[in-house]
Amino acid sequence: HGTSKRNEHGQLSIGGVEAVELAKQFGTPLYVYDEQLLRDNCRAYIHAFQQSGMKFQVTYASKAFCTMAMCKLVEQEGLGLDVVSGGELHTAVQAGFPVERIHFHGNNKSLEEISYALDIGIGTFIVDNFYELQVLEHLAAEKEKSCHVMLRITPGVEAHTHEYITTGQEDSKFGFDLGSGAVRKAIDLALKKDHLQLIGLHMHIGSQIFETTGFQIAIERVADVYREVLNTHNLELPVVNLGGGLGIRYTSEDTPLKIEHFVSTLTDVIQQEFSARNLHYPEIWLEPGRSIVATAGTTLYTVGSRKEIPGVRTYLAVDGGMSDNLRPALYQAKYEATIANRMNQPHDEVVSIAGKCCESGDMLIWDIPLPKTEPGDILAVSCTGAYHYSMANNYNRIARPAVVFVKDGRGEIVVRRESAEDIVRCDRIPDSLRA
Ligand code: LLP
Predict the structure, then answer these.
(1) For 101-153, how does the pLDDT look when each residue is reduced to its tens digit (9 = 90+)?
(2) In which band, very low, low, confident or very high, does the pLDDT at 163 lie, cut at 50, 70 and 90?
(3) What is the pLDDT of residues 184-237, one digit of tens each?
(4) For a surface tag, which of 82, 86, 115, 410 has the fewest beta carbons within 10 Å of its beta carbon?
(5) Who lines ligand 1 at CB under 6 A?
(6) Residue 166 per-residue DSSP state
(7) How far is the CA of 402 from the centre of ligand 1 (A)?
(8) For residue 288, what is the domain's CATH number?
(9) How many separate domains does the chain show?
């Protein structure tokens, strides 16, 4: 996976540093990112679009992994940034991310969030619903500002992925439905708002997707709407935003498309469908999250206790779990792992990796062949770069791990480990309880 590999001593090495060294230096559990791979993934998107000759913007979906250092890296690679909350927006602003390259998403942005985003002049609002359209126009008018908006539509396609992460089907909390006429109504309304400039439609059909059929169908439907807008308003909307969703390989069961292939298929379909309707090619915006960060991340854990149930199973417990990786419990997600300091030993014991949270569902991996382990060994779980740190939590009041970027044989902290002090930082004991 990525640039993590087995070196000549049978040790896992990431970005030129042995995992065992990283664990020693920064402690475990530890999120380790291969910085070069993060950059390579950004560049793969840019390069693929450049090949197509079309106008484009690649906007990294920061929900997958949002820290100030990541915002910096994304800025350096020339991508935009998609945020879905005041917290992600604040992170970007603190990192000095250019506000005009920020896109603001979300199905229930608060008045404070909208107001702040207008004040700092973010690039584009992705408007989700009629209420937001009204509030945004009102606040923009009050502030005498104008802003670019895209309308998020639900195109009515089902992407074949876990039901919790499909978003394009009609019965969804997100966006204006295409089927019911809500999209047309929203477009008419948006075009009447003096302070909003409608630049196009946005869709996001799901995540961890392995095929382009869903995109193809959605693009056909979107192109129909663009044609209709031209007919009725004499206006060609300049941008189409196709969202994110490209899947990655967590285990050998996954068969993802290459970034180049994914992008070239989308640009081909856009060209076909738009020219078939006598429309100019729009600028294409994409919002990849997982496919930029997932493979670049590895989580290191220290192996602790073991429980053997003869003839049934061996549980091997590590010093993290659903507090740093919610995905197995939430989506039955599967992972591959290795013992970083024993990669060249025979993998002749089948074990199940348990977390340390007080919950039976806190299992990271079921039945995986590993070398014989001892307490203190370092377990490395691969492809943990997307939706791990960002979904980490303090269940059982477990402190969240540190995050390290590794490059050219050097690891640097980008998020320090939480301390016991951090755990009680927001707690107060009211006087009434002190008596
Ligand atoms: N754009 C929008 C509007 C989105 O809602 C998302 C993800 C993305 C872009 C980025 O999608 P990606 O390229 O990462 O697939 N927590 C789940 C994934 C939730 C995805 C939410 N939306 C997981 O761990 O699998």
Answers:
(1) 999 999 999 999 999 999 999 999 999 999 999 999 999 999 999 999 999 99
(2) low
(3) 999 999 999 999 999 999 999 999 999 999 999 999 999 999 999 999 999 999
(4) 410
(5) 61, 63-64, 82, 105, 165, 204, 207-208, 243-246, 287-291, 327, 331, 387
(6) B
(7) 23
(8) 3.20.20.10
(9) 2
Per residue in 223-280, pLDDT tens?
999 999 999 999 999 999 999 999 999 999 999 999 999 999 999 999 999 999 999 9
Full domain range(s) for residue 50: 35-292
Mean of pLDDT over the chain:
96
Specify binding-site residues: 245, 287-290, 327, 331, 359, 387
Active-site choice (42, 358, 383, 426): 358
Only one residue has tokens 């909003």, namely 196
Q: Residue 2 has what pLDDT?
A: 54
DSSP string across 383-397: S--SSSGGG---GGG
Does one domain contain both 76 and 123?
Answer: yes
Q: If you write DSSP's letter for every residue of 187-207 in order, what string do you get?
A: HHHHHH-TTEEEEEEE---BS
Q: How far, in Å, from the CA of 434 to the mean position of ligand 1?
A: 45
Q: Where a domain ends, among 266, 292, 318?
A: 292
Atom of ligand 1 nearest to the CA of 247: 15
358 a catalytic residue: yes
Distance 305 CA to ligand 1 centre (A): 35
Which of 63, 126, 164, 257 has most ligand 1 atoms within 8 Å of CB, for mutation? 63
Q: Are residues 261 and 309 in the same domain?
A: no
Number of Cβ within a 10 Å radius of residue 16: 15
Question: Which CATH number does the domain housing residue 349 bear?
Answer: 2.40.37.10
Is the ipTM higher than 0.85? The answer is: yes
Ligand 1, residue 386: give the atom nearest the CA: 24
- Tell me, what's the pLDDT at 170? 74
Predicted pLDDT at 185: 97
- Give the residue with greater pLDDT, 320 vs 2: 320
Domain C-terminal end among 225, 257, 292:
292
Q: Tell me which of 202, 212, 290 to substitute to probe ligand 1's pocket, judged by most ligand atoms within 8 Å of the beta carbon.
A: 290
| Domain match, 322 and 215 both | no
Q: Are residues 21 and 84 in the same domain?
A: no
Using a 10 angstrom Cβ sphere, with 0-12 exposed, 13-18 middle and 19 or more buried, the burial of residue 329 is middle
Q: Which atom of ligand 1 is nearest to the CA of 64?
A: 14
Report whether pLDDT(177) > 80. yes
**CA 165 to centroid of ligand 1, rounded, Å:** 7
Q: How far is CA 46 from the centre of its chain?
A: 18
d(CA 148, CA 125): 6
